[in-house]
Write a structure and sequence with these properties.
about 200 residues; mainly alpha; two-stranded antiparallel sheet; 4 strands; about 60% helix; elongated
Length: about 200
């Protein structure tokens, strides 16, 4: 979840910058084709950067790709290539917590994704299409809000995991438990986690 937070934080900043560029381009009559091209070029660069962040990995797996066995959540054109599904770990007896974020929930789906909205903005800027630019300002603003909300949710889950880790280590048992990767069901590590995390279930 730390990797998720870092990626979403970066993406929030980039989306905010893209919206600022859209606002600059909204007054098409005040800027010429050269300036609009420069704005569109930066939007393209931001889009590429966002797709890169959307392919961030942890332990070799894409953190926004669900349960995919592949090494990417998104293709170079912004198409989702992950497999929907939650990656979970045990935080208390009978309680599991999701430790990833669904890419489509964070970034949108298909033509409603932030990647598609940025592509549309780039086209509108180059064409001096004020209507298209205005639409992009609204849509990209909503994209930014959605990403921020997903980051807040991931932060809440990360805090809960940290509380559970602190509780176990305070008790001084099972120092060899690896908290960085989910324990394998049926193993001694899983049994240890279940026993020690039972008091944390009520937190």
């Amino acid at each position: 979840l730390g990797q998720v937070d870092s990626a979403l934080s970066s993406m929030t900043s980039q989306v905010r910058r893209a919206r600022e560029l859209a606002l600059q381009g909204a007054n098409a009559g005040a800027i010429g084709p050269t300036a609009r091209e420069a704005l569109a070029t930066e939007v393209d660069q931001i889009r590429d950067g966002l797709i890169g962040d959307a392919n961030a990995t942890y332990a070799g797996r894409p953190i926004f790709g669900g349960i995919t066995s592949g090494d990417k959540a998104y293709a170079a054109d912004g198409t989702y290539v992950g497999t929907a599904g939650a990656v979970e770990r045990t935080v208390a007896v009978g309680t599991k917590l999701r430790v990833d974020v669904d890419g489509q929930s964070a970034f949108g789906v298909g033509t409603g994704s932030v990647f598609a909205h940025l592509k549309d903005l780039s086209v509108a800027l180059r064409a001096g299409d004020t209507t298209g630019i205005s639409q992009a300002i609204d849509l990209i603003g909503k994209d930014g809000d959605r990403i921020t909300n997903m980051q807040a949710d991931a932060g809440t889950r990360a805090a809960r995991i940290e509380r559970s880790k602190v509780r176990i280590k305070r008790l001084g048992y099972f120092d060899d438990i690896n908290f960085e990767t989910p324990p394998v069901p049926g193993t001694t590590d899983q049994a240890d986690v279940d026993v020690m995390m039972a008091p944390a279930a009520a937190e």
